[in-house]
Each structure stands twice: as structure tokens, then as C-alpha cells.
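PROTEIN DESIGN WORKSHEET
SECTION A - STRUCTURE
LENGTH: 154
C-ALPHA CELLS:
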């Protein structure tokens, strides 16, 4: 299974989601291919935001080697799950799809974890460090639930 995490800039939420899912999958012995990208191209080639790197480092996960890239239509073929951090990202990706099969690969991250259905992983870019901790907590819970669902359906 191949999972693509998507946010706007690919320097805060989606690289954190990639790191959290990688960590959890590896702990559970689940073989997943995981990547992340942004719907926007502002930060192509950049490492994750230093506050994201620092928060994840405090949780024992190193995401410093990740580099931002932008979503491309080829990602519809290259991934089984395309997981959007908020509804803008979700809508932007669905708008690029060419078929129902492609559109149905697009999921909303927090729809995996109750009670946060249809809510956004909040964008921490313009806030303080506490925003990154909130993102981490939400991602930990939703990525655990994602893996639970994957294991149940396997
Ligand atoms: P992300 O956060 O989508 O979680 O990576 C953002 C990063 C950069 C910008 C916005 C959100 N920006 O406007 O540059």
C-alpha cells in the first residue's frame, strides 16, 4: 500500500503526518510506502519548517531529511490513499482527478478519528509552538486509526 499525505505547503502538517505514519507503521511491522506533498509550490525543495522538525524530534521522530514537492496528477496512479489535511487540500486534489476511481482515493485525515470527522488538521504555520503540538496529537490519533482500519480490512 502506498500512502500520500497532502497539505498546502508540504513543510508543516504533511511531513509531520508522513513521519508519524512511518513511525507507527514501522512499530507495527506494517509495510507501507509513505510520501507527502503540497497542493502549492511555494516551498518546493525546502526542508520541513524548523518548528515541525523540532516538535517531531521531541517525539523521537526525525523528519529533517524530507524535502517539499508539489502534488502532480501522476500521484493518482502512484498512490492508493491520498490523505488531505484540510478540506481546501481535499477539494483542490479532487478537482485534479480524471475519474471517480481517482477521486475516491482522496481522503480527509481527521475522518479516520472520531470525534473529528470532517474537521481540518489546523494549519500551524502562522502560530506558535503549541500549534505544532496540537497537530502532532491529532496526527498521532488519526494515523493510529488509519492503521487500525488498514489492518482490519487486510
Ligand atoms: P502546511 O503549512 O500546509 O502545513 O505545510 C503551510 C506552510 C506554508 C504556507 C502555508 C501553510 N505558506 O503560506 O507559505
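SECTION B - SEQUENCE
RESIDUE ASSIGNMENT:
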Amino acid at each position: 500500500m502506498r500512502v500520500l499525505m497532502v497539505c498546502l505547503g508540504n513543510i508543516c502538517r504533511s511531513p509531520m503526518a508522513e513521519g508519524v505514519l512511518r513511525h507507527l507503521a514501522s512499530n507495527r511491522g506494517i509495510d507501507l510506502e509513505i510520501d507527502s506533498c503540497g497542493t502549492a509550490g511555494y516551498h518546493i525543495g525546502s526542508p520541513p519548517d524548523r518548528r515541525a522538525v523540532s516538535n517531531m524530534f521531541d517525539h523521537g521522530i526525525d523528519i529533517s531529511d524530507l524535502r517539499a514537492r508539489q502534488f502532480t496528477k501522476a500521484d493518482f496512479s502512484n498512490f492508493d490513499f491520498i490523505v488531505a489535511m484540510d478540506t481546501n487540500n481535499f477539494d483542490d486534489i479532487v478537482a485534479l482527478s480524471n475519474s471517480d476511481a481517482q477521486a475516491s482515493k482522496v481522503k480527509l485525515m481527521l475522518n479516520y478519528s472520531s470525534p473529528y470527522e470532517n474537521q481540518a488538521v489546523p494549519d500551524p504555520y502562522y502560530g506558535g509552538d503549541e500549534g505544532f503540538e496540537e497537530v502532532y496529537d491529532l496526527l498521532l490519533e488519526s494515523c493510529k486509526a488509519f492503521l487500525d482500519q488498514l489492518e482490519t480490512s487486510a
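SECTION C - NOTES
Residues 46 and 67 are 5 Å apart (CA to CA).
Strands lie at 2-7, 33-38, 81-84, 106-108.
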